[in-house]
Amino acid sequence: MKFCANLSFMFTEGATVLERYALAKDAGFKAVETGFPLGFSIDQVKKAKENAGVEQVLINLKTGDLAKGELGVTAVPGKENEFKENLKTTIDYAKALGVRKVHIMSGKVDHVTPENWEVFEKNLNYAANELKKYELLGVIEPINQHTVPKYFLSDYGKAVEIIKRIGCENLKLQLDIFHLQHIIGDLSYNIKELMPYVGHVQIAQVPSRNEPDVLGEINYEYILKHLESSGYKDWVALEYKPAGNTKEGLKWITKYGYTL
Predict the structure, then answer these.
(1) pLDDT, tens digit (0-9, with 9 covering 90-100), for 14-72
(2) Catalytic, out of 19, 141, 161, 228
(3) Is residue 260 domain-resident?
(4) Catalytic site residue 118?
(5) Most exposed of 93, 169, 226, 240 (fewest Cβ within 10 Å)?
(6) Domain presence at residue 49
(7) Which CATH number is 27's domain given?
(8) Annotated catalytic residue: which of 33, 121, 211, 239?
(9) How many domains does the chain have?
(10) Is 130 labeled as catalytic in the residue annotation?
(11) Is the pTM of this model over 0.85?
């Protein structure tokens, strides 16, 4: 099992994503994932990553300002050209940073219609084919409605149906165990059932979204082993908010028998 740091959640003591690369390295991480580094050029981000000496596993599709709730336009009719432009920009960053995975966020929708699903699938089909040109993997993530109300994609069944219909090896599921527990639970069964479609995994405790070993609904000592036995061998991203000091909170890794 190998762990990477989510820079948006884990190192809030860093004012910018550029500073957080170094903080992740200082904490012992060999790899990171990030949201789209809005406001920073490719050269700035590449320099920060290289100076820290870490691998970058995943980047979010350019979505706008996350602090303002701008979570993408993939499922928004009339925004197809904006989606394509955002995808092109993200691919440019991904290539420069050596990223292998792109998280394609769906966006928020007030009132879901069949047209939203049609546009979502059309855009994902386009993205999968574009990403394939650069040997990049696109991943889509169901996000629960408690944490992000009105987020369009919050159904694992529909996510898998779309992945199967598009039928491209460059489009898979981003399985965040935090959201899986909120949306459908029954983790042992659903992890095994979803695993053939999984391209990336994230973890956090429920409901606090803190470290995996804090008091909560999920027994991560078991779940991490279950992920391995179900066939997952890739990076597990720590997308949690530290309950206290980030580095002190990492003690759970050795407690569970792992290393960074």
Answers:
(1) 689 999 999 999 999 999 999 999 999 999 999 999 999 999 999 999 987 776 777 99
(2) 141
(3) no
(4) no
(5) 169
(6) yes
(7) 3.20.20.150
(8) 239
(9) 1
(10) no
(11) yes
